[in-house]
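During the second year of the project, the team shifted from modelling isolated chains to modelling whole assemblies. The rationale, set out in the original proposal, was that interfaces cannot be judged from single-chain predictions alone. As a representative example for this report, we include one of the complexes processed in the last quarter. Its constituent sequences, exactly as entered into the pipeline, are reproduced here:
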Amino acid sequence: MTQAISAQSDHLGGGIRFNKPTMLGVGTMVWLGSELMFFSGLFAAYFSIRANNVGPWPMGGIKLDVIQSGIFTVILVLSSFTMQKAVYDLEHDRRRSARIWIVITMIMGAAFLANQFYEWTHASFSVSTNAFGSMFFIMTGLHGLHVFLGLVAMAFLLIRVGGRSKDPGLLPVMQSISYYWHFVDIVWIALYASLFLVH
Amino acid sequence: MRSKVSSEKSITEPNVKRSRFNIKGRNLAGLALAAVSLSACNLPTFGAFRGATTQGQNELHLWQGFIITAIFVGAITWGVLFYAVFKFRRRGSGNIPKQTHSNVKWELVYTIIPVLIVIGLFAATYVSEDQIDAVSSHPALRVTVVGFQWGWKFEYPGGVTLVPNGSIYPVLELPKGETTTIKLISNDVVHGFYIPAFNFSRYALPGVTNYFDFTPTTTGYFQGKCSQFCGLYHAEMLFNVRVVSPTQFNSWLSSQQKKVTA
Amino acid sequence: MTILEEQLESHPEGQAHHDEPRGLYLWLTSTDHKIIGKNYMYTSLVFFIIAGAMAMLIRTQLFSPNNHFVSPQTYNELFTIHGSMMLYLFAGPFAFGGFANYILPLQIGAPDMAFPRLNALSYWLYVTGGITMLLGFFTASGAAAFGWVAYAPLSSATNSPGAGPDLWIVSIMLVGFSGIFTAVNLVTTTFYLRAPGMTMFRLPIFVWNMFVTGLLILIAFPVLTAALIMLYVDRHFGAHVFSVAGGGIPVLWQNLFWFFGHPEVYILALPFFGMVTEIVPVFSRKPVFGYKGLVFATLAIAGLSTGVWAHHMFTTGTVLLPFFSAMSLLIAVPTGIKIFTWIGTMWKGQVEFRSPMLFVVGFIFVFTMGGITGVLLAAPPIDFATHDTYFVVAHFHQVLFGTAVFAGFGGFYYWYPKMTGRMFRENLAKLHFWVTFIGFNVTFLPQYLLGLKGMPRRIAEYLPADHYTTLNRISTIGAYITGAAFIIWMANMWISWRKPIKASDNPWDGHTLEWATTSPPSHHNFEKLPPIRSQRPVWDMNHPEYADWANPDGHDSSQPEKVGER
Ligand code: HEA
Ligand code: HEA
Ligand code: CUA
Ligand SMILES: [Cu+2]
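Output from the structure prediction step:
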C-alpha cells in the first residue's frame, strides 16, 4: 500500500496540498465509514440488551470504576491532540519534532491499554457473568484491539519518519493514521459514556 | 376501525357483480381495496387455502386483492416487454434509430402509477393486518403452545397437557365459532407454529411470548407444521388441528380434565 | 464536489511492472485489476458449480416423499452451504469482485484500481474464506447446518456444537473483510481515478451501480461482522449476547443479521442491474433511456433497503409491521423504474438478439415475476401464510437466479470477447440460454404452488399424505435440465479454448470506454483514450453523426449538456 501512496503523491508534483485529501486519505475515510457501522452494530446490540433489561443497570449489581476509567479517557482524548501536533509538524517538515510527538502519542495510547488490561484482570465480573459483562468485554476488547493496531501502525510510521531520504508518500500515511486515531478516540468517548455513565 | 370496514363491506356487497365486470376500467389502486371488500368469496383462491378461521379468510381476501393487482402489473410489464422485443427487432442491417435519451412524461408515468398502486396495497394491508393481529380480551378459551425440539406441547385449562406420543402427533382441539387465544412460547430454539389451512404462522421465540387469536369457521381436521428451521428433525415437528362444535369441544375437555385428576 | 471534479492521470502502483505476468506464480501474485478480476470470476464460477451440484442433491432428496437418499443431517448441511456459497461465494464475488474489478477501471479510463495490493489481498481473503467454508464438510460433526441465516439460538454452542459452524463463522468474516476492502477500493477508484472528462454524470450506469453497491457493502457487512464476532464469543467464551439465560436476546441476532441480510440481497442485485443497463442499450443501438432516473432509482433502492430488514421477521411478533411493510412495498417503485427504463431503452430501437441480450431479456422476464411476488410477501398477513414455505424459496430464486445467473451470464457473454480476445460459439450460447430458461421455470414455478399448499422450506422429508410429490418431481426434473444447461456452457468454453476464434476489439459496437482498447486490454489498459464528452465516448467516436454531444435534439430539457464542456 505504501508504494501506492508514493506513486500517487508523485503526480501531486511534490508540492503539498494540505486541504485536499489524498487518495489514501479518501480511502481511509471510506474505510472508517465501515468501521463506524461496525461499532454501530455493537452499540445496537448493547442498547437492545439494556432496553430489554428490567431492574437496575448494569444488570447483576455490577459496579465499575468511573473515575479511574475517566482519567484514562482523558488521556486518550489528549492523545488525539498530540497526534495532530505530530501531523502539523510533519506538514511543515519538522521531522524530529514530529517523531517526538508520535512517541508521546504512543505512550498515551499504551497507558490507556495498560489501564484496560488492569481493568480486565481486576474486574469483578467476566464475559460469561451476564449479557452486560459480555457486551462490556466484547466492546472494550474490540476497541482495545483498534488502539493496539493504531500503536502498531505508529511504530511503523516512526521508522518511516526517521528515514533520511525524501519520502513524498509519508505525509498521506501520517494523515491517514491520524484520521484513524481520531476515529478510535471518538468511539471510545461513546463507549465510555454508554458503558460507564449510563444507568 | 373494524366497524367501519364491515359497513364498507355491506355497501359494496350489492355492487359485486358490477364492479367485477368493470374491473378493467377501474384504476389499479382502487382495485386492491375493492377486492378486499369483495368478500363474496366467489373469486378464485389463486392456489391459497380458503382459510378455516375468520382471520384466515381475512388474509385470503387480502391475498386475492394482491394477486389480482400482481397479475395486472405483471401482465402489463410483460406485455410491453414482449411488444418491445418483437416490434423493434433489428431486421437486416437496420438504420440507426433516433437517439432518445429521456422522456420526462413517460418517466413520470411509470413512477407515479406504481406509487399509487403501492399506496392502495398498503392501505389494504393496514386494515387487514389490524384485524388479523387483534387479540380478544375475553376469549372463550386460552391455550398455551410450547414449541420444543422436535415437537409441540398444548396446555389447556385444568392441567390438560397434550404432547407427542411415540409416532402420534398431538392434536390441537379448537371449538368452532369461538375465539381461542393462543399463547406461544419456546424454551430452546426458534420454531414456526404454522397451520397452512388457517393461512397463519407465528414464531415460537425463546425470550418472547406471542399471543394471537383463532376463530375457526369450519369443523374439520387440519395439518400443522413447524415452519422455521430448528435443527435435525425440523421436518418431523408436526401436529394436527381438529375443529369441533363447542359442545363436542366441552365434553372432550372435561373428559381430559377428568383424566388429569384421576 | 471538488474532489469529484479533480482529475488525475496517474498510474498507481500497477505501473511499476510493465509486462503481462507470465507463469503461475506471477499470475497469482499479480496486482493487475484485470488478472484479479479474472481470478475472482474463475473462482466464483467454481463455487457456483459446487453449490449447484449441492442443489442437485437437494432436489434428488426431494424427488420422493420419505426419501432416504441423504440423511437429514446431510440435507441440512447441504442447503446451508448451498445458500451460503451461492450468496457469499458466488453471486457477490462474481459481480463485485469479478466484473467490477475487471470492467470498472476500464469504463472510467483508469489504469488500475486505487489500491492494487489491497485488491490482491481482497482476493486472497475471499479464496481463503471459501476454502474455510468447504472445510466444514471434513470435520467430525460435519459442516454448519443452521441455514445461511444462522439464527440464534440454533447456532449456539449447545445446539450446533463442533468445528463446522465455527469454520462457517470464520469463513463469512473473511469473505466480509474481502468485500469491505473491495468496496473501499472501488469507491475510492470511482472518486479519484476517472479519466479527464469523465464526470459523475457521464459515468456508465454499471459504474454507478458498483459505486452504490460499494456504499451498501460498507453499511451492511460491518454489522454482520460485529454480529458474527458476538456469536463467536457466545459460542466459545460463554457470553450471553444471544441467549436468554444471561439476559441476552435471541431475536437480536435476527435484527442484526437482516440489517445486513436485506441490503445484501441488493448488494447481489445492483451490480447485475448495472450489467443489464450496459447490455440493453448496445443491443438496441440507443443510449440508456432516463439516465438520471436510473441513478436516482439506484440511490433510492440503496436508501430504502437499509430500512426494510424486518420484513424477514414479520412472524416474530416483535416488529413494527406497518412501517416495514410500507418501506418494502415502496422499493417496488425504484425497481420498477429500472425495469421500465430498460424497456424504454429498447423502445423504437433496433433490438438484436445476440446471446447477451437474450439472457438479459430472460432476466427481465424472470425478475419481474420474482419482484412482484416479493411485493406479495411484503404484506404481513400474506407473509403469515407463506413465511418459511417454498413460496419464499420460489421468490428468492427468481430474483437471485434472475440476477446472478441470467443477468450474470448475459454479462459474461457480453464481456467474454473483451476479457479473452476470443469469441464463444453463438449457437451454443443461445442453446445454453433456452435450456436454462426452460429448466429454471420448470424448477421454480411449481415451488410457488408447493408453498401455497403449505410445504415448509428446509425440510429433508415430506409425507406421501402431504400431496407434494408431483410438484416436487416436476421441480426436480427442472433442476436436472438446468444442470444440463451448464454442461452446454462448459462445452462452449472448452471449444472456445481449444479452437479459438479471434474476437475484434469492439464486436458489439459498444458504447463505453472498455471497447476503445484492445481485446484483451494491454497491461496498462489504454494506449489512447477517445475524448470523453458524453456518457458514450466510444459510440461518439464510431458514429460521429449520431454523437450524443453533437446531437442535442435527442435530448430533452431534462438533460442539459453543454457541447465542448471541459
Ligand atoms: C436479489 C435478491 C432479492 C431481491 C432483488 C428481492 C426483492 C424483494 N424482496 Fe426478497 N428475498 C430475497 C432476495 C431478494 N429479494 C431472499 C434471498 C429472501 C429469503 C431470505 C431467507 O429467508 O433465506 C427474500 C425474502 C423476502 C421476504 C421475506 C419472506 C419470508 O421469509 O417470509 C420479503 C417480504 O417482504 C421479500 C420482499 C421483497 C421485495 C418487496 C422485493 C422488491 O425489491 C421487489 C421489487 C421489484 C418489483 C416489484 C418488480 C418490478 C416492478 C414493477 C414492474 C413496478 C410495478 C410494481 C408494483 C407497483 C407492484 N423478500
Ligand atoms: C444465487 C443464489 C442461488 C442460486 C443460483 C440457486 C440455484 C439453485 N437452487 Fe438454491 N438457494 C439459495 C440460493 C441460490 N440457489 C439460497 C440462498 C437458499 C436458502 C438456503 C437456506 O435455506 O438457508 C437456497 C435454497 C434452495 C432450496 C431449498 C432447500 C430447502 O429449503 O430445503 C432448493 C430446493 O429446491 C434450491 C434449489 C436450487 C436449484 C435446483 C438451483 C439450480 O438452479 C442450480 C443450477 C446450477 C447448477 C446445477 C450448477 C451447474 C451444474 C453442472 C455443472 C452440472 C454438473 C453437476 C451435477 C448435475 C451434479 N435452493
Ligand atoms: Cu421446530 Cu422447525
Ligand atoms: Cu429482504
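Residues 34 and 65 of chain B are 8 Å apart (CA to CA). DSSP finds six helices and ten strands in chain B.
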